[in-house]
Specification:
With 50 residues, the chain is mainly alpha-helical. Helices cover 84% and strands 0% of the residues. The chain has one helix and no strands.
């Protein structure tokens, strides 16, 4: 019984670790894209009509 539980917890832990890494990479990528697009907007601020 304990061995089944250990295997199940081990699998869940591995999937949580993988999901965390994917979430971290996505967050960093989204943050970099936001900073780059914001810098582009600030660089072309004088071109706007508003």
């Amino acid at each position: 019984m304990d061995e089944k539980l250990y295997k199940k917890v081990k699998g869940i832990g591995a999937s949580n670790l993988a999901f965390g890494i994917i979430t971290l990479v996505f967050g960093i990528t989204a943050g970099v894209m936001l900073v780059v697009n914001g810098a582009r907007l600030l660089a072309h601020k004088s071109d706007s009509l508003i």
